[in-house]
Amino acid sequence: MQTKICVLKGGISPEREVSLKSGEAVEEGLKEAGYAVFNLDTANGNFFRQLAKEKPDVVFIALHGSYGEDGTIQGWLELVGIPYTGSGVLASALAMDKISSKRIFSSQNLSLPHFQGITRNEGYSLNSHLSFPLVVKPARSGSTLGVSLLRDGNELELERALERAFQYDRSFAILEEYIEGKEITVGIIDDPEPRSLPIIQIIPKNELFNYQAKYTKGFCEYIVPAPISQEESVRVKEAALKAYESLGCRDFARVDMILKEGVAHILELNTIPGMTKKSLLPMAAHAEGLSFPKLVDKIVKSAFRRTKK
Predict the structure, then answer these.
(1) 270 annotated as ligand-binding
(2) With a threshold of 0.90, does the pTM exceed it?
């Protein structure tokens, strides 16, 4: 009998469209890998009942953003006893909250840009360790939505950037030191132990790797493996794995960094990175000869291993 997999996709976050594309690709890849697959859009209020009725062996979560990547759906699946792919409730919540995850990374002596958390409707002044240029971003959002780069200390521009950030997180925003260097990303999979995939360098046509650059053809150049020294590669991969393990992640994730003068500065960790066939994690897997169907098969098998413990 074929193993039955449910792919959860869509949802109600601002990253819905990306999630739908990830879900479609994952479903196709799992079918190619030999699984019996069906999908559910969590924007449909009846998806809980449908899931209970179909009784899948494993749920592959292809949701991005709030309610899908933040521990919410993971908690519900644990309550009803359905195995699922990806990180658990706590790791998902921590990774989604950039302020919390940055504090954990810092406690592990990982390098990261200086930052300051901002609460909506409360006054603030720049911390002494921050100066322009700055990156302004929502504390809990993905796909680089609501992210701005400010080159100078124009107060009006800063207020506008914060308002953009608060459109995607109604409570908290982050002011972050802008570090000019090589933008890189490291995919990680459990195989069965966590290991890194080839490093990718991201070269956006504009200064910032924002939503448009990420999802519009021709707005970015990707080099894999990244043209960095062997010594830098080792340090980057070690930092990525340490970040992954410090949050308690599992199955797969992607760590975004800036590499400057041999130091890897961690920007954030994505517990459910984009999973279209052209997304960064599948791109890294492909670079080492791991096809998309084999990649999603590894992720599912990693989830299965937990059910046997």
Answers:
(1) yes
(2) yes
